[in-house]
Amino acid sequence: MKKHEDISNIFNIKIKDIMAKDVIYTHPDTGVVKAFETLLKYKISCLPVVDKDKKVIGIITTTDIGYNLILDEYTLDTKVSDVMTKDVITITSNKSIIEAIRRMDEYGHKGEIINQLPVVDENNKLIGVVSDGDIIRALSKFLKK
What we know:
Strand order of the largest sheet: 3-4-5
CATH class: Alpha Beta
Strand content: 15-25%
Organism: Methanothermococcus okinawensis (strain DSM 14208 / JCM 11175 / IH1)
Largest sheet: 3 strands, mixed
Protein name: Signal transduction protein with CBS domains
Order of helices and strands: HHEEHHEHEEH
Low-confidence stretches: none
InterPro entries: CBS_dom (IPR000644), CBS_dom_sf (IPR046342), Diverse_CBS-Domain (IPR051257)
CATH superfamily: CBS-domain
Helix content: 25-40%
Keywords: CBS domain, Repeat
Distance between the termini: 11 Å
Pfam families: CBS
């Protein structure tokens, strides 16, 4: 078989093989300024929001918070629960990379793509995050084979 001949093998790349497992997350009662500091400190662009059982209940992004901080939309009392996106698009670890790409494209707001998907188990508990960068790296490695 020649290089790139069987592109269908791309469906065999699973989320569990490319996701980040050491996920930084936040809770709904965290202050939005503290959450923004966390995003900047760890150089990440999203924080999944979880409840006490580590179930995903929301997500916040650097772009959303930063933009609204600049506009002075928040006070020091503003909590993550006040501003988080509640309709979170997630994925399970056994899904294929193609499914992640489809979700990132299909569920993006106003023609944008979603850059990160929280990875959850069958009980909606957070177990990882897969980003567009993770997908690009995996595809690049696959295409070098």
